[in-house]
């Protein structure tokens, strides 16, 4: 029985030691890659959103919140690039 306890203790020591070893995460290599091109669906969405700011009710809601509709439309226009 003492040899079984010793074996279990050795396995536990080795396993606890390996838990402290840093393993590089797969996320460390993942990231956004800039390609210099925009996705066509994204550009279409940005144009549709830009035309949304032409509606009177949207302009009024933005003005109530202190945001200029023209400024918001310009910001969305910069997203197209």
Descriptive report:
The chain has 81 residues and is mostly helical. It has a domain at 37-81. Helix content is 63%, strand content 0%. The termini are far apart. The relative contact order is 0.09.
Summary of the model, kept short:
The protein has 81 residues and is mostly helical. The chain has helices spanning 2-19, 40-52, 56-64, 69-79.
Topology:
Layout: H1 2-19, H2 40-52, H3 56-64, H4 69-79
Question: Residue share in helices?
Answer: 55-70%
Query: What is the number of helical segments per DSSP (H or I, 4+ residues)?
Result: 4
Query: Which blocks of ≥5 consecutive residues have pLDDT under 50?
Result: none
- What is the strand content? under 5%
Distance between the termini: 72 Å
Q: What structural class results from the helix and strand content?
A: mainly alpha
Specify Rg, calculated over alpha carbons: 29 Å
Largest pleated sheet? none
Count of individual beta strands: 0
Question: If you average the pLDDT, what whole number results?
Answer: 75
The ordered string of helix (H) and strand (E) elements is: HHHH
- The general outline is rod-shaped
